[in-house]
Predict the structure.
Amino acid sequence: MFCMSKSPAQLRWARSCWISAAMVVPLAIGACAAFRLYHLHGFAAYVVAVLPTLPILWVLVELGRFLAVAKDEFQRNILVQCVLGGTGGTLATTTIWGYLEDFAHAPHLDLIWVYPIFWLFVVVSYPVVRMRYR
Amino acid sequence: MNACIGSPAQYRFQDRFLFFIVPLFVLDGILDIWGFHYHHLHPAGALAVLCAAVQSSPIIGFIVIIGLYLAEEKDEFQKSILVQSMLWAIGVTLAVTTFCGSMEKYSQGPRVDIASVQFLFFLVYIVAIAANRWRYR
């Protein structure tokens, strides 16, 4: 998806992903350190907790923008199918895991994992979708 | 979705919903009310996994029939409304879960059951479908 980037929309999307990934790491480490060192409470805790999520949300906004402005219908269609694959996989996994927590006492899965699970399924769907159009 | 148009794909979607998903929801309800609330069952091991599979089967089934509908639907406009709604739903769901997960992780916010993700998704999905249909009135 990234190595074949040609159009400005694709370049912008790829750049956003890399910048976001680069921003998440220091923000998450900074938030962890702030909570450990300063034992934050109240409004400050909420603000610091939200900081690492901002680059993640930015990627979602850029994804929506990319889908809206991409000129290549084929590439857009492939990405949409991958996102739908990711959606289905995420919903299936979280639903099954949630009930396993209830019935089989599986370990609790934090909500923060929903986002990586989604992208994992998007990445897994990508070769499957591409294979259909070989 | 079903009031005005009747493409073959939509009819098949409705049939699948009626004959597969509704019975699974009924089975779910029976298991929930009769098993867990009335008889206070505490399944363990393989039976617990089976109960989890039964309880999640309507949602998994629903995802499958939406996938089949998208593959079969010839009307690009209908397909586009469905896809746009799903993209909005997953976008909002990911935003909310990331936000709440972060709160939970850092500031000891309330512990949210991961199974609630499906309810959030379908709630936003229904709202998005209604909003998209209203946009293209």
